[in-house]
Amino acid sequence: MNDFLLETRLKNEAPDLHRRVADSASVLQKMLESFLTWFPDFTDHSILHSLDVLEFCNMLLGEQGSKLSIPECYALVMACYLHDIGMGVSRENFETFTNEIDFEGYKNRFPNADAAQIIRDYHNEFSGLFIQKYAELFDIPSGEMRFAIIQISRGHRKTDLYDEEEYPNLQTKDGRIRTAYLSAVMRLADEIDVGAGRNSELLFDTSKLTRRRDIDAFGTHESIREVEVATEEIILHVRPKEPRFRALVEALAGKLQETLDYCRDVAEKRSDLRITQKRIVVDYEAAK
């Protein structure tokens, strides 16, 4: 029932904003694939992942999607498309953006971190800086919208969504934008994109992987056949690729539950809307 809910509302109620999103998506398709330059063996961060995150946002919102303002719909859709744009920054932008990021002792803890590791660990911050620099390219209509999209994109990992200065409830001329709530929904949507479809064979040849970490990550994704979002549960339908992947899936489910608990609490304490899902459930399918 909630398929394309956000996109449909924009198309029907704000066609100009819907056009801006469509134009941005066409530009982003190639730009997002530039992450492969830095991470040829990393999980998918292309536009396919962005579309999955958007779909999961629609599922998580459910009936509450109709309670979002039009500015909220636009900001969330744009953030879904842009949240990982920092994974493929150019060398020039990497050097520029690095000088603007507060690494809070990171370089002392990881003195040998190369550019790829820094991008991987701080790609949400690189995404925010990228959006700030290229806002005109994406035809973002106002400073308030730009701020909201940046914060929601940054908020898909690490940032403190309880911080009222970082994540305020904005009042625009067209309606409010509850940045903390939208960030919580997208953080959860991003985290639960762990199914087999995440690593498209169009992008990856997993037979060439050599590092155990990469083999484990891809194998865990392949073991999760489907992620189902129900009203009160998020269900991982699992058929382990090998017996040892059962433990890896359980560990991932525990991590997802922590994210779900955090995002539910943010929604409750920072907004008048809710995330209704309470549990991560692992459903083991019979081997075929």
Strand content: 5-15%
Strand order in the largest sheet: 3-4-5
Helical stretch tally: 12
Number of strands: 5
Notes on the protein architecture:
The chain is mainly alpha-helical. The chain has one domain. Helices cover 53% and strands 9% of the residues. The protein contains 12 helices and 5 strands. Strand 4, helix 12 and strand 5 form a beta-alpha-beta unit. It starts with a helix and ends with a strand.
Give a concise summary:
The chain has 288 residues and is mainly alpha-helical. It has helices spanning 5-13, 15-32, 35-38, 47-61, 70-82, 91-98, 106-109, 115-133, 143-154, 179-191, 212-223, 245-270, and strands at 169-172, 175-178, 224-229, 233-238, 279-284.
Question: Notable features of this structure?
Answer:
single chain, 288 residues, mainly alpha, two-stranded antiparallel sheet, 12 helices, 5 strands
Chart the SSEs and their pairings.
Layout: H1 5-13, H2 15-32, H3 35-38, H4 47-61, H5 70-82, H6 91-98, H7 106-109, H8 115-133, H9 143-154, E1 169-172, E2 175-178, H10 179-191, H11 212-223, E3 224-229, E4 233-238, H12 245-270, E5 279-284
Parallel strand pairs: 4-5
Antiparallel strand pairs: 1-2, 3-4
